[in-house]
Design goal:
By secondary structure, the protein is mainly α. The chain folds into 2 domains: 31 residues, no CATH class; 63 residues, 434 Repressor (Amino-terminal Domain). It contains 8 helices and no strands.
Length: 116
């Protein structure tokens, strides 16, 4: 499940009193019986890939790829390559991304001023 910055988290009707009354074995058995929450096997886990940090940053800021690329003066093709792990950012790009991660508004303002 992907949650975007403005999305509300799904609210469930968890019966916490019932859960607290269950033993650890009962909780485990209940979790294993849920077809949507099967534990990952080593084989399935090995086939998964982590989401790139750059994509996580962009999504945390609530920006589309084109918007992020335009705001931070990055070629859209470069951003896509980074997000899809076809290439990795070099040292200056990593420094820029770190600065964006730490203070995105300041970086937007600085880069907007530099473009004027």
């Amino acid at each position: 499940m992907t949650v975007k910055p403005d999305d509300r988290l799904p609210r469930g009707a968890t019966d916490w009193a019932r859960l607290e009354a269950m033993t650890d074995e009962e909780v485990r058995a209940a979790a294993l019986s849920d077809p949507d929450a099967r534990p990952l096997t080593a084989e399935r886990l090995s086939g998964m890939r982590r989401v790139s940090r750059i994509k996580v940053l962009r999504q945390r800021l609530g920006m589309a790829q084109t918007e992020f690329a335009r705001a931070f003066h990055l070629p859209i093709t470069t951003l896509r390559d980074w997000e899809q792990r076809r290439t990795t950012p070099d040292a200056p790009a990593r420094a820029l991304l770190l600065a964006i991660e730490r203070d995105p508004q300041a970086m937007r303002r600085l880069l907007a001023e530099a473009a004027e």
